Amino acid sequence: MHVLYVHQNFPAQFGHIARHLVQKFGWRCTFVSQTPPGIVEGIEKLTYKLAGGATQHNHYCSRTFENCVWHSEAVYETLKKRPDIQPDLVVGHSGFGSTLFLRELFPRTPIINMFEFYYRAHDADSDMDFRHDLGWEVPEQNYLRSRCRNAMILLDLQNCDRGYIPTQFQRSRFPQEYWPKMEAIFDGIDRGIYHSHHDQFRPPVAKRVPRTIAGIDVPPDVRVVTYVSRGFESMRGFDIFMRSARLIAQRYPKVLFFVVGSERICYGGDENYIKGYANFKEWVLAREKFDLSKFVFVGRLPQIELGRLLASTDLHIYLTVPFVLSWSMMDAMSCGAVVLGSRTRPVQEMIREGENGLLADFFSPEDFADKAVKVLENPDEFRPLGKAAEQLIVENYSLEVVLPRMLALYESAMSTRKQDPGSVSQTPGQVLVQSVKMPRKSPFLG
């Protein structure tokens, strides 16, 4: 069997399943992206190069679609030069390397698209105007553009045979007529990386010894709070976290905040409102006074180091506007961390307050501080919440659970593949089901 993956980046959301298909089943997996070519863990990587893109001469509202078309053409032209690639299945990320034009190359090959977000101009969960507390006036053109940003997504929805999306919240954003075509399947937490050896990193308070975290020696009586975000930005509530942390330190001075991430802005348009500042972090620090001796900004960490940090924390704070849920929160839950999250729909899908975590009002640093201090005063009392969070990951979101569901989706799509006249009677999906019968235990991890 041969699966072709399409994504701007590698390994992104597809690398883990491609690796297992190659190593466990002996399948052929090809990955076309903008990253350098080569062979990685048995996966052949092809590079596509853009021949153009949107410019200021394009209408502001159509630039996203213009860029998507250029990516689609580049993927098409790259694969057109490789007639030896005739996949049994195409899997692509809608919005990060569209599969739209591949129908012309592989007319009978089933296509699965992963979807992440459907943009809306105004509703109760609009990510665009959720941060009303900042007083930033969203330009009228941004509302107009949001009505055009789904153009390629809608074309992919029409074009694909099956679709999937990580969470029920994200699925709920899409028009209801497409819900039957979209299954909620999370990307999967690799427990082999974020494994649970929590007691060696976070022993009971009565047995605490100095901890070394990210190269910092933490005394036994000092509590550790973590915050992780790919970029420090308003959509992930970095400013709310900093204000909350200041209140926490005032009420519980023996605390250190380990902040993981970069100073770039990954989501949203913060750069349009912070004129004169290099980034959102700089803008936040200039507006209010913070005791930076309480903060350790560690930059981005390798996955294993991030896992150790999350397994060492006494409390993990996570905020997001109604948008795509960050992997970091799920990673923290997988490590058994006590998570204090914003009371927003993406977080509420995973965290049940008082059962496997805590929730606070996104806009209230006081609420975050009140609940955080209670945890820091007696971390052992709240540790069962972290254990319950870890169990949720094990049972519903680990790779062991997710990969069989993903394979079943592959089988479903392949069973619908149209036949050439005079071809063999079995569909590729039937061959797959017979040759790779799904056992009760996931075949992927052995």
Q: Roughly what percent helix?
A: 25-40%
User: Which class do the helix and strand fractions yield?
Assistant: alpha/beta
Largest sheet: 8 strands, mixed
Terminal-residue CA separation: 20 Å
Please tell me how large the radius of gyration is.
Answer: 23 Å
Mean pLDDT: 89
The H-level CATH homologous superfamily of the largest domain, spelled out, is Glycogen Phosphorylase B
Count of domain modules: 2
The fraction of residues in strands falls at 15-25%
Broad shape: globular
Name given to the CATH architecture of the largest domain: 3-Layer(aba) Sandwich
Sequence of strands across the biggest β-sheet: 3-4-2-1-5-6-7-8
Question: How do you describe this structure in short?
Answer:
The chain is 35% helix and 17% strand.
Account of the protein in words:
This protein is of the alpha/beta class and about 450 residues long. The protein has 2 domains: about 1-190 and about 400-435, Glycogen Phosphorylase B (Rossmann fold, 3-Layer(aba) Sandwich), CATH 3.40.50.2000; about 200-395, Rossmann fold (3-Layer(aba) Sandwich). It is about 35% helix and about 15% strand. It is built from 16 helices and 16 strands. The chain has helices at about 15-25, 65-80, 100-105, 140-145, 150-160, 170, 200, 240-250, 280-285, 305-310, 325-335, 345-350, 365-375, 380-395, 400-415, 430-435; strands spanning about 1-5, 30-35, 40, 45, 90-95, 110-115, 160-165, 180-185, 210-215, 215-220, 225-230, 255-260, 295-300, 315-320, 340, 360. An 8-stranded mixed β-sheet has the order 3-4-2-1-5-6-7-8, with helices on both faces. β9 (about 210-215) and β10 (about 215-220) form a beta hairpin. α14 runs parallel beside α15. The chain is globular. The two termini are about 20 Å apart.
